Amino acid sequence: MKQILVLSGKGGTGKTTVAGAFAGLAAPCVIADCDVDAANLHIILSPKEGEVNFFYGGKKAFIDPVKCVNCGYCAKLCRFEAISFPPHRVNELSCEGCGVCVWNCLTGAITLKESLSGRWSVSECRLGPFVGARLEPSAENSGKLVALLKKEAVKIAEAVKARYLILDGAPGIGCPVLASLSGIDAVVVVAEPTISGRSDFIRLAELLKNQGMRTFLLVNKWDINPQETENIERIALDFGFKISGRIPFDIKVVETMLNKKVLSEVPDFPAAVEIKKAWNFLVSDLKE
User: Fold this and answer.
1) pLDDT range class, residue 101, cuts 50, 70, 90
2) In 19-157, at which residue ranges do the beta strands (DSSP E only) sit?
3) Which of 15, 24, 116, 188 could form a Cys-Cys staple with 8, CB 3.0–4.6 A?
4) Distance (Å, whole) CA 275 – CA 13
5) Quick check: helix, strand or coil at residue 138?
6) Is the previous residue joined to 176 through a cis bond, with omega within 30 degrees of 0?
7) Which pLDDT tens digit goes with each residue over 56-84?
8) Residue 216 near residue 204 (C-beta atoms within 8 A)
9) Residue 134 confidence class, pLDDT cut points 50, 70, 90
């Protein structure tokens, strides 16, 4: 089994579109949406609803009204202004679970309790098993949830003896990205030919270089700025990337997304053709 992770230095580059297309070309395969902060791969894959599991990744303060004497000390100490009084109550959306109020409560009325951070499930879609999740509003610890999703996806892929595990990663260089990197055979970075796109690509490239990953660059909408495309590709080569291709701007991509399809499921048009070439290049390189 080969694990292929699709990343981007910033949001909006077309990362999920590429991940969906790769899943279609690799089908049947196992797919995981590791962008739990803004999950959207399920929109184009339309998986059947599976059993929902709850993820508790953080803690929130809880005030026992029986023990609380309404002294107001905890509210003064809370830098997040999560405690209101009287009577003393905790706003879970504001609470960061730091524990300062717990340690300093004079009557021991405050404790930290596990808080629901997200929900995840394993379901079936037309391309194979799909593992996805969503964080609760204001919830954090998404790195732990991504690690859980990846573990489940690998377990399923090994059970069904899948040839490929396709992962749609989170944008940027944060904890969710780091959590998705373990055991990966190839990372495909989707970049857009803009100044901000180049800057964000460099940050991600530096991270991947330190991880010693096998990396590929795929420039999306390259023809809106050919000069910037060349700049990014030159930088990528300096970082040890292989150039897997260029995807032109194509309005039919939007039409495909609106129809809840992946690019490999529609008649060939320029963007779809180039994504297939990029996939073939990637698969050929992984065989070496």
Assistant:
1) very high
2) 30-33, 52-63, 83-84, 89-90, 110-125, 128-135
3) 15
4) 14
5) coil
6) no
7) 888 899 999 999 998 889 999 999 999 98
8) no
9) confident
Stretch (H or E) spanning 216: strand 215-220
Q: Identify the CA nearest to 50 among candidates 145, 152, 192, 202.
A: 152
- Would you say residue 116 has pLDDT above 90? no
> Which residues is 215 bridged to in the sheet?
187
Residues 158, 162, 166, CA angle at the centre, nearest 5°? 100
Instruction: State the average pLDDT over residues 166-172.
Output: 94
Q: How far apart are CA 249 and CA 139, in angstroms?
A: 35
- 159: CB partners within 8 A, 6+ apart: none
Cβ atoms within 10 A of the Cβ of 87, count?
9
Q: Nearest Cα to 122, choosing from 72, 159, 94?
A: 159
Q: List Cα–Cα distances, 43 to 47, 66, 174, 256, 261, in angstroms.
A: 8, 47, 24, 12, 9
143's tokens: 């790195």
Q: What is the CA radius of gyration of the chain?
A: 22
How many residues belong to the chain? 288
Model pLDDT, residue 141: 66
Q: Are 226 and 254 in contact (CB under 8 A)?
A: no
pTM of the predicted protein model: 0.87
Q: What is the pLDDT averaged over residues 200-208?
A: 95
For the chain, percent of residues with pLDDT exceeding 90? 72
Q: Is 227 exposed, middle or buried (0-12, 13-18, 19+ CB in 10 A)?
A: exposed
- pLDDT, mean of residues 272-283: 94
Q: How far apart are CA 91 and CA 260, in angstroms?
A: 38
Q: How many CB atoms lie within 10 A of CB 37?
A: 19
